[in-house]
Amino acid sequence: MAIERPKNWKTLTTVLILSSAIAGIGAVYLPLIVFYALELGAPLPIATAAIMAYPTIVALILVFPLSIYADRSGKRLEIMVIAMVVGIVTHLLLLVRSVPVFILSRLLAGLLFAVGPIGTFIYANIVPPERLGTILALSVGTMTLASGLFQVFSGAIFTALGGRYDMLFYLAAIGGFIALLMVIPVYMKIWRLAHIRLPGMKFSDIATVLKTKTIYWVGISICIYLIGWNLMYPTLSYVVRELYQAPIEIATALFGAASLMLGLGTYIWGPILDEWGGKKTLTFALLASAITTFIMYFALASLWGYVVFFMMLTVFGVAGAPGVSYIAVRSVRPELITVAVSVPWIFVCIASILGGFLSGAFLELVGLHSTVLIAAIVELIGAMMMTRLPKI
């Protein structure tokens, strides 16, 4: 399938990346979401699942049907717009102070997760192949950095507003609306390119992609690694606030700082991917992350030991975000790109769901030290599996 990419691809991708930065304001309340759920009466495992587990349940269900429908119909841009509108609605649903509605809101947020592979396809058809790793990293990294910046100040904003969650929810909705207005002109410019139909795409293509060893192996490997990482991430602000007795402003700021590390790490690893390739980058980064987690175990007596090492392991581990997509895109023929990117996403979803529920349960049952040690072992297994990838 020959693709004629637009000459002004730099301008188009710049606007898309900037819109993702504005959309990052939607995460402004994320460091407080566990505390909000606990205030509504939810138990800790249910509360920690709100960060990643609930959204990824929906993503797990929808990612393949949406990706395949997008390829058959060509309606990728319409799907992306609908997902952004639903994202705005999810922020407003949180205004209803009810545990069932709270869970519904977080479940619906998974639609934005599910359209990730469609967004990757759009970038892959705009950006020259030799620059794809860098652009994917810039896109993910910019949104993550923006989210982190808003999260850093979420506790201070929350306190300044007299402990009002509703103002944070309104702020998130406004950010999503502005981002939507920004992408529409770009989508109009790439309308014909993005509406490429792939009539041969069918569910059997999933089996074809799964027969590609590189695809399923990188998916299983990143899943195992992320189960370990997700044993720690959803409880970060809770641990800082409740176990280390830090003020809410510090707890949310450190949660936001972790998001900043995710964004910073993505910027770092994008160009490295283009230079080193997928296997070398992922193996090095995930092994470094697992080793750092082991070191963190011995520093848990101090809040800052816990925080500094968590930030370090996160910078290493986030190489998986652009790295998995990078490998998937290069492992199949062009018409299978969307499904190829979707398969590792399924494994990422599984890790987020398991980790989201297990993080709170492990913290209650075995405590922080044992949870961190278990996480380090699981991360190491996933990292070692990356050594079996072919050189890509």
Structural account:
By secondary structure, the protein is mainly α. The protein is 78% helix and 0% strand. The protein has 21 helices and no strands. The relative contact order is 0.17.
Tags for this entry?
392 residues, mainly alpha
Estimate the global geometry from the Cα principal axes. Answer: globular
The CA-CA distance between the termini, in Å, is 21 Å
**Tally of helical segments:** 21
Helix content: over 70%
Order of helices and strands: HHHHHHHHHHHHHHHHHHHHH
Radius of gyration: 20 Å
- What profile does the largest beta sheet have? none
Question: What is the arithmetic mean of pLDDT?
Answer: 87
Low-confidence segments, given as residue ranges, are none
What fraction of residues sit in β-strands? under 5%
How many beta-strand runs? 0
**Helix vs. strand class:** mainly alpha
Oligomer: single chain
